[in-house]
């Protein structure tokens, strides 16, 4: 299986280093010259930053379905809900060829334990959204999805996916990468032990993270864990996973994160003196006002977690849901 730079497993709070985290990616984003003109779209953030913590599985639909490099450029035409893939000058239709290859490729990828995929934006094969589809009048509408991207997302509807362009938005980037690591932890949990005890432990360790996304869905997830008995663990897993992924797809806003910060502060009300409590409140208020990034109050709280050895918080993934080297919480 093709890979990029060697993986550096991420150490997480009170846990050993993780096993490899595999992420699918459009091959051109890794700097490989596979585009129609023999070029690439190397994304340095993916290879030089995120690539230190994941192993990429590259996919180039055009090359892998048998089209050469260089090749005639293609575009989507017709109905945006079911477009055709045709070459721009000679009008050769590669729709069935691409769809047949994609159907087989997604089944191959199903065996690789992927935790997500990064697609090439605007691509007629790999664009995740807003791909141009040309109508009979020759005018495009930005309502299409690349043929391979569509097949992939239909096969893996719960897998975290993004486009490289959208990852320039720091909030979308943080949400996507947080979901990657969450997906991996879930994957490790259910593959290691499918018991109610393991599900309950997973839920307990992710309560604050889930709270930062949706208190409503946190309550619903807690109800799944508490209401379904040991004899029905498979039903609990089947109900829990899609709701969890739906929860974390909601953005962790400043307001939600502030609520979690204040909740965590409550665990230290018997330990901190008046000055320390005031300092912590001021740091949280600066974050809420947009004057400090989230990493500032989280760092201070992590200090108190270590100092006072608070067992519940020591196990909470919210305090470090992804490698600190990615600096995803360093933006205001």
Automatic annotation (TrEMBL):
<dbReference type="InterPro" id="IPR017087">
    <property type="entry name" value="UCP037004"/>
</dbReference>
<protein>
    <recommendedName>
        <fullName>DUF1722 domain-containing protein</fullName>
    </recommendedName>
</protein>
<feature type="domain" description="DUF1722">
    <location>
        <begin position="207"/>
        <end position="323"/>
    </location>
</feature>
<dbReference type="InterPro" id="IPR013560">
    <property type="entry name" value="DUF1722"/>
</dbReference>
<dbReference type="Pfam" id="PF08349">
    <property type="entry name" value="DUF1722"/>
</dbReference>
<dbReference type="InterPro" id="IPR007553">
    <property type="entry name" value="2-thiour_desulf"/>
</dbReference>
<dbReference type="Pfam" id="PF04463">
    <property type="entry name" value="2-thiour_desulf"/>
</dbReference>
């Amino acid at each position: 299986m093709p890979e990029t730079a060697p993986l550096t497993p991420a150490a997480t709070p009170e846990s050993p280093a993780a096993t490899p985290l595999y992420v699918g990616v459009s091959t051109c984003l890794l700097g490989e010259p596979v585009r129609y003109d023999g070029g690439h779209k190397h994304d340095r953030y993916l290879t030089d930053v995120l690539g230190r913590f994941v192993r990429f599985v590259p996919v180039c639909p055009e090359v892998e379905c048998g089209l050469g490099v260089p090749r005639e450029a293609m575009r989507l035409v017709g109905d945006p809900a079911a477009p055709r893939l045709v070459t721009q000058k000679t009008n050769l239709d590669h729709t069935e060829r691409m769809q047949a290859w994609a159907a087989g490729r997604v089944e191959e990828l199903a065996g690789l334990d992927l935790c997500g995929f990064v697609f090439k934006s605007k691509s007629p094969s790999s664009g995740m959204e807003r791909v141009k589809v040309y109508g009979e009048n020759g005018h495009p509408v930005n309502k299409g999805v690349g043929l391979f991207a569509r097949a992939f997302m239909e096969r893996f509807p719960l897998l975290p996916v993004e486009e490289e362009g959208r990852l320039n938005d720091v909030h979308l980037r943080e949400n996507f990468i947080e979901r990657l690591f969450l997906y991996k932890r879930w994957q490790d949990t259910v593959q290691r032990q499918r018991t109610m005890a393991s599900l309950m432990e997973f839920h307990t360790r992710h309560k604050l993270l889930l709270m930062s996304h949706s208190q409503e869905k946190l309550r619903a997830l807690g109800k799944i864990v508490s209401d379904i008995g040991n004899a029905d663990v498979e039903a609990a897993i089947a109900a829990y996973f899609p709701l969890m992924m739906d929860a974390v797809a909601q953005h962790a806003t400043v307001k939600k994160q502030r609520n979690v910060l204040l909740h965590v502060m409550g665990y230290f009300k018997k330990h901190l003196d008046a000055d320390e409590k005031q300092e912590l409140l001021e740091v949280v208020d600066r974050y809420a006002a947009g004057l400090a990034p989230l990493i500032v109050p989280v760092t201070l709280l992590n200090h108190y977690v270590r100092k006072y050895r608070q067992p519940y918080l020591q196990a909470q993934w919210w305090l470090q849901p992804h490698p600190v080297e990615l600096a995803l919480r360093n933006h205001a």
